[in-house]
Amino acid sequence: MKLSTLTILMIGAITVMQVNYSNAQGLAPSSAQLVNLAAPNHAIEKKSVHFSQAISAGVAMFKVKDSFESISDEFWLEVDGQTLNQGIELTINQPEALIRLSAKQSAGQYLPTDHAIDPAQLELRKNTKLIPKAFSHRVSQEKMATASILANSSAVKMSAAAGTGQFQLRVAQSLEPTQKYIVNVKEKGSIYRQSLATNQQSYIAGGQVNFSVNMTKQDALMNNIDHRAYIKTPNGEMKQVSYVAVNSANDGNNYELSLPVVTQNVPRGQLHELHVRSQVKEGNNTVMRVGKMAFAVAAPTARMTIEGASYEHASVNLEVASEGRYEISGVVYGRDENGQSKPLMRSSSAYYLSPGEQTVDLQFDKNILAASTLSKPYELRDAKLTDQSRVAVLQRQSSQQTVMLVEDVPQLKSSGGSLSLISMFSLLGMGAMLRRRRN
Amino acid sequence: MSMKWLLNYCLHTKKHDVTKLLQLKGRRLDLTHYNNKKGNIMRKILSTLFVMFGLISSPVMATKGIAFVHGTGAQTDAYNDYWTADFVNSVNKGLSNQAMHTVVNCDFDQFMWDEKAAGCLATQLTTFINNKNIDELIIITHSNGGNVIRWIMSNPTYDSRYPSIVTSISKVIAIAPSSLGTPLADAVHQGNAFESSLGWLLGYGSDAVKQQQVSWMNYYNQNFLLGTVGRPALPKIFKAIVGSDVDSAFWDGDSYCAGYQYQVALETTQNWLDSCSDGFLNCSSQSGAGTTWFVDKQRTKGGEPLSHQQSRRNCFNLDTIIRHDI
Lengths: 439, 326
What we know:
The structure holds two protein chains of two kinds.
Chain A: E1 13-16, E2 49-54, E3 68-72, E4 74-80, H1 81-86, E5 88-92, E6 98-103, E7 122-126, E8 129-130, E9 135-139, H2 141-146, E10 153-158, E11 165-171, E12 180-186, E13 192-198, E14 202-204, E15 209-217, E16 220-221, E17 226-232, E18 238-241, E19 243-246, E20 254-258, E21 272-282, E22 285-298, E23 302-310, E24 313-320, E25 324-335, E26 341-353, E27 356-363, H3 366-371, E28 375-387, E29 392-396, E30 403-406, H4 421-438
Parallel strand pairs in A: 1-15, 14-22, 23-30
Antiparallel strand pairs in A: 1-20, 2-26, 3-13, 4-12, 5-11, 6-10, 6-12, 7-8, 7-11, 9-10, 13-15, 15-16, 17-18, 17-21, 19-20, 21-22, 23-24, 24-27, 25-26, 25-28, 28-29, 28-30
Chain B: H1 3-11, H2 15-21, E1 24-25, E2 28-29, H3 39-52, E3 64-69, H4 78-83, H5 85-92, E4 101-103, H6 115-132, E5 136-142, H7 145-154, H8 162-168, E6 169-175, H9 183-188, H10 206-211, H11 214-223, E7 237-242, H12 260-269, H13 283-286, E8 291-295, H14 296-299, H15 318-323
Parallel strand pairs in B: 3-4, 3-5, 5-6, 6-7, 7-8
Antiparallel strand pairs in B: 1-2
């Protein structure tokens, strides 16, 4: 995909803190944030498309959730062939840990399979003493490859007799000195775990990102942990990012770090990643864990304001800054016999649009509305604006934001609370249209 | 003998009325809008006739077809290379006309929304639906194929061909779908992407593997895909078959179905997975979208588990279980 040269200045802050797993907050770019990107050069639908689907009766209100938690009981290192031939130090904290060794491949370069490490050539020492039956299983590159999963990889499972502690792992097979390898130690079932969490995975460029990270031993929080954070961009660049402690009423272990400046558009639908390497001293040993999580950073190419809604459609004002295909979607709720709000229809409308102010409809299916056992008042909730050209979520209403559907005249109440000039004109236009229909 | 002809012949009613009567609502006969003066009497006669012909609860004049949708990888001959003829032909016996099937060949090394992935799938499904006049499409997916069809079902406005595909689908039988991703995809992408341990053989790897990392799928599920917990349901049935274990004991003949060497590798990969997994996907991922039809041991011959390799082969009666659901 050809990338836009637009520079997205994204100096946000990552705050390491306790995450409150409540419903996701709304997401909305401001007008000032909007950016003009080049039109997508990949195939994209140009026709307007509308779709509504009925939601079964009895379904509870949807919870807009955008949180994620990663639990890690593993770590990985990157080493070269020369170092592996000399031997590396490994701290193992879980009996019968699995060690995977994968030869790394540079993008676009062919890597011969002979770069894989023969597991029969692995030696494990403790206090310089060779452990004779160190491994209970040795899985060769050929066997790993049959699963069509990890190429140029081999693995060994440590024997129960080898125990835990500080080891030296050495590869006897002569390796290309500069060839890079990933050494992945998986300590399945370990009492030491790293938790890396966020309450939101969708961001607009320039926004602030919140994460929590901690280490536990048998579910009890550990102290004096050294966390190192890295950001991996969608194009594969990974950089360590520095962080500073910030005051917090939570647990005193909060940090803030700045994201690097992003100088190019994000490849379609691809995500950034936060990697955190956590290390803590436990007696004479060091416990290491690495966790990672993905998050989206959308270029703010458009924003929406819902002007009002009838039983047929919601009228949506779009400020389009970049040419592309945009979808507005939402869920219509009605009331059950107990007066409880329940979803009855999910609707979406998509348009290919040029930059500028646009008023479009989110079309509803009146037949679904008529067939529903739920009754009025009907409300539009969970409204979302998506840039389909770039597979990015641009705007999402919070769970509390609703727009009432009125039978004849669109309601004035807008999600943003204020009525813009555009809204006024839009309303007047719709009123005139309705009058014409009556006549 | 068509239903329309039968009604005309038997009841001597006007063609217009019968056509109106035959209007389908939700693919079942809808008699409620029949407002002829003799409506009540006629309705009773018709109901009796339909019961006699065993047609009252069956889809009427529906043309049923099956599409086999492969998993991760760029396929050019999925019939032989991904599914095998034995599996496809055995499942097809569930069709009254076994010609009404298609085996999809697309590049599922791409992200699900890519023109070579969902775009290609939409092209092949649309051609199949139109050429064969399919109005009851059963889609059988394996692994990441479930995500690609979920993209189409969840984003009907992305492509003007999607709505008619969604309308034609009667159900998706998702064998071992990677709905919540897999930690193995994370393992593949540990480290820097420029030097990551790329190169899953046979076309595996790349963007599709990146997409199936656990936190990536979590994002896509929450923002672009339907059918997971707390999200609106998919517009059509999506029912999963879950593989729960890998049997690799060399003395056990069951380990050899679909190739013993695959079983050995998958047992190793289980170290990255939960105790309930098919060697590639956790059970929680396989049952993470839509509904769970069954967990392998509940229905397979001998209560055998289905590894990720075995769940696209004639292993332990999987083919006949699916056939009987067609």
